Amino acid sequence: MENKTLRNTQDENGLKNRVIRVGTRKSQLARIQTDSVVEMLRKRYLNLHFEIVAMSTTGDKILDTALSKIGEKSLFTKELENALERNEVDLVVHSLKDLPTSLPPGFTIGAICKRENPHDAVVFHPKNYGKTLNSLPEKSVIGTSSLRRAAQLKRRFPQLEFKDIRGNLNTRLKKLDEKEDFSAIILAAAGLRRMGWENRIGQILNPEDCLYAVGQGALAVEVRARDEEILDMVSALHDGETVLCCIAERAFMRHLEGGCSVPVAVSSMLKDSQLYLTGAVYSLDGSDSLKDTMQTGVNYPQQNEEGPNDDTQYVGITAKNIPRHAQEAAENLGVELASLLLSKGAKRILSVARQLNDAR
Fold first, then answer.
1. Is 98 known to be catalytic?
2. Whether the Cβ atoms of residue 267 and residue 211 lie closer than 8 Å to each other
3. Cis omega (within 30 of 0) for bond into 158
4. Confidence (pTM)
5. Its GO biological process terms (predicted)?
6. Which of 46, 68, 177, 301 has its CA 20 to 30 A from that of 183?
7. Residue 17 forms beta bridges with which residues?
8. Residue of 98, 209, 227, 239 with catalytic role
9. Where along the chain do its domains lie?
10. Which fold has domain 120-204?
C-alpha cells in the first residue's frame, strides 16, 4: 500500500498543474463508460482534475449504411485520435473492440480495464418475451449490424432470417419495441449491463452458439505513447487477466488481417496460469468455417518479476506492470492459432467473404 500511495503522489506532482482532458464519443453508452473510467482515476488520484470532452465520430454520423460496408477501419476512433494528436485531449476512452489492431504511429493503449461480460445477448420484441432464438417461429427476423454475429447465427439457426439494424443502443431498442420489423436483436451484453438494461436480456449466447468479437466487453484507454506521465497514470487501471486475453485475441485478428468487413470471432480464458484461446473465421452465410482452440502457459500472476517492463507494445498495448514473458506468450498464442487456421484455408474463406461483402 505504501508503494502505491507514493507512486500516486509522484504522478500527481507531475500532473498537478494540468487539467486532464478525457475524450469520448457523445453516445449515452460512451459517456457512461467514460464516466466509469474517470471515476476510477479520481479515486486513485484525489488531487487531479478531469474534464470530459465529447465528440461525434464517423460511425456515429453514418447511420444508413452497414458498418461493414463503410470501408473505414477507424469508424469510432478517428476523430478522437485526431484530438489526441492535436493535444486537445490527454486520453481517450474506447470500447476496445472499436480499436484496430494496428494503431496510428505515436499512440498506444495505456490501460485495459477489467472486462465486463464479453458475450452477445438477445433482446426480444415484447411479444416474444420468454422465448429463445430456437423457439421463435420460422422466418422470424433478427436484427444485427455485425457480420460476425450474422454468420454464426445463420449457421446455428438456419430457420431464422437476419437483417441489418444500425444506430446506438437507444435507437436500436426503440426500433425493436415500436415496430414489427424485428422479432429480436443481438447486442453486446456488456453494453446493456452498463446502461442498466440487464432486464432486457432474454438470452445470453454461449460460445457454442456465437463466439464474441475481439476485445468485446473491455474498455481501453488510448494515450500518446510518449506522454509518460499520462501513460503511468492510466496504467494503474490495467486488469492483468483482461490484458492477456485481449493481447491474444488482437494478435489472432491482426495475423489473420481481419476486421469488421469479415466474420472473425474469438473466446478466451485465463485459468490456473493457462491462457486458452478459441478463434474462428466464417463465410458470410456461415456455411463455411474454420474453428480451433489452443492454449499456452503464461505463469501469471508472478510475484517475483524483476523490475518494471519497458515501453514495448504488444498489438498496440503498453502494460508495464504486467510481466513481459506473459504478454509475449499471449501474443504468440494468437499468432499461432491464426497460423493454424491459415494453414487450413482461412485465407480463402476470408477473401471470399471480403469480396462478397464489397459486392453487396
1. yes
2. yes
3. no
4. 0.90
5. heme A biosynthetic process; heme B biosynthetic process; protoporphyrinogen IX biosynthetic process
6. 68
7. none
8. 98
9. 2-117+214-359, 120-204
10. D-Maltodextrin-Binding Protein; domain 2 (3.40.190)
